[in-house]
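## tool: complex_structure
## caller: assistant
## args:
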Amino acid sequence: MSPRKTSPSTPDPAPSTTQPAVRDAVIVGGNRIPFARAGSAYRTASNQEMFTAALEGLVARFGLQGERLGEVVGGAVLKHSRNFNLIRESVLGSSLDAATPAYDLQQACATGLEATIAVANKIRLGQQDSGVAGGTDTVSDAPIAVSEGLRRVLLEAQHAKTTQARLKAFAKLRPADLKPNPPVTDEPRTGLSMGEHQAITTAQWGITREAQDELALASHQNLAAAYEAGFFDDLVTPFRGLSRDNNLRTDSSLEKLAKLKPVYGKNLAGTEPSMTAGNSTPLTDGASTVLLASREWAAERSLPVLARFVDAETAAVDFVHGAEGLLMAPAYAVPRLLARNGLTLGDFDFVEIHEAFASTVLTILAAWEDDTFCRERLGLDAPLGKVDRSVLNVHGSSLAAGHPFAATGGRIVASTAKMLSQRAAETGKPARALISICAAGGLGATAILESA
Amino acid sequence: MSEETHARRTDHPGADENGRITVTMAEVPGLGGLYARGVAKPLLRHLPGRTSEGATVFGPGAASLLAPVSYRVAGVDTGDPALRERLAAYDRVVGEPASDVLPAGFVHVLAFPVATALMTRDDFPLPLLGMVHLANAVQVARPVVVGDVLEVRAWAQDLRPHRRGAQVDLVTAVRTDPADDAPAWRGVSTYLAKGVTLPGAPEPSEPHGGTAAPASDSSVEHPLPTGRWALDAATGRRYAAVSGDRNPIHLSALSARAFGFPRAITHGMYTASRALAGLARERGDAYDWTVSFARPVLLPGTVDVSVRPDGAAWVYEGWDARKGTPHFSGSVTPRG
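## result:
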């Protein structure tokens, strides 16, 4: 922290005696339900059901029945308007003390990590001793909106004071207004889907099909190996007959991936499309939770402490005018986060970069190795550096597990905390991890965790 | 310097320094009536002659074919509640941020009917319907805000040859105070009348009514897109409702077919105004905004768009997302 500047006329006030020192926020553990491809096992499950299931599993895992926690924070990207208090309603449906407050938060795919940052910061400031962060999303049970025309007519009719005025409102209805609007993943300001945006970035960085397929295969192999090793035994609770993420392909191969047809960037002049269903994450349903606490709170309950939440940084980029790729914000957040903490990319035992698409990971890695990008865009003197592939997404990531938007942050934080705890136990030395999540709207959230 | 500086001094009928007589109208006319008049207008009855193919050929002195007249409407009250509603609807249709500042495209839809009225004069040498909007250039010197009372002047100038016929500029000048020297907003709309030959010009390179499709259309190299516009069949009807431009070529496939289009086409100014809206934050209060139109966008249709900085300006272009056919290109330049 830099020393505060003072002027002679306004002497530095004496430190307030009520100001608590910042303390550690630690990750006690996590729980999620297996992630399911859209339209499969969780076809009929709602966001509230899934989040409640994940939360209830966490309560059971750590014996929190009847506990009043500081707060439960989470959200969903695709949310029904009736779910205005989604997380609070989930708390009321769980066996936590009903006096546990909650709020909804939403930052597209970064929702889960942003919720973790929010909970950790309140703990660090001493405003609460414990909290749960998480998220849930379902594409299968997504809200379907009425058309803009019908919506305006309905609102006008609702506000009308006389029957005649109501009839007048309905008279404006046109047949086309009855067509429903299912949710889309298009960016509102550009009209391009996330995949099309990433296809442009992929072309700009010249990321090859082979490199994307290799990353996708590694994700499946790593996730499969982690399941085989029992890594997820205390991180995942079965739900609706599923005990593993059902997008996981244990029999995937480069040959099979190479056969898939490109689905994005097919009409970009002068470029070869390379993004397929195999190296892009599928639409997925699921929910995740993470339990955070102060060290004292965890010790009082004899709960484990996996990792310490060190710091976080968010960033955003202007993708609307093509200045930067839609999913490139983490490339900007991480250098700022590292600088503030006096760290380099080589200081991490684990690097977790959310695999929205294989090429998202690869373009971010390429950007950090690129001299021009690091000088001109990041204002650095030299490239940020290279991430050793042996520390990247070592237990698989979203390409294999799937990506229920708001649930991904909780999945990564809980898994990473456990990886750090295991590594520190193995080596007897502290371990450190970097987490990076890109999000719609040109957003990115990043964080540092350390073994506790 | 500019013609309109002189023209405004003509407060009463009488020739200005450019020899134009100001005709003051009580209000901005409706485009619907003007189109009806354009259809009914005895076709080019003032033209000196026609070729055997039906194309029109002017005799000597084409410039003098433009009547020396400018139209003027004063007291256009932008504080009118109905107009504010229309502004809000316009902002929604083209994607402008809600604001009390009138986007340049909205000033255009308010003022341009005055220029259209000029084109429906019996002595205007080109036919109103069937004319092709080639380009548009607007200079916003000062923002026009809700509550401003506008004076609109319009005249035609620079009747000149085009490889496919004859083109003419319709100039519209909008002042927020009639005493102002320079207009707050000035627009130049360039129209083409196909198949019309001006004196001294070569014959149009293609017959009247032909479609101008450069053979290399689809092989044009475009930059990587920054956006994609999925335009549904009602796009033309929505812009018609907020702009007042209910030219049948924009409204439905049926009405467009009557004018030789396979389907309805977007208003060119819709595409330009939407591109301008995308630069609402970048353009500032005063800016220059240009567009030139290539092939029309058939509805429904998908347009890939690129917007990028080019020096002090922002340039944009749109093309058919599938075929690559260019639709429009232009620029938005903040006035430093």
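## assistant note: Residues 148-178 of chain A form one domain. Chain A has 14 helices and twelve strands. Handing back to user.
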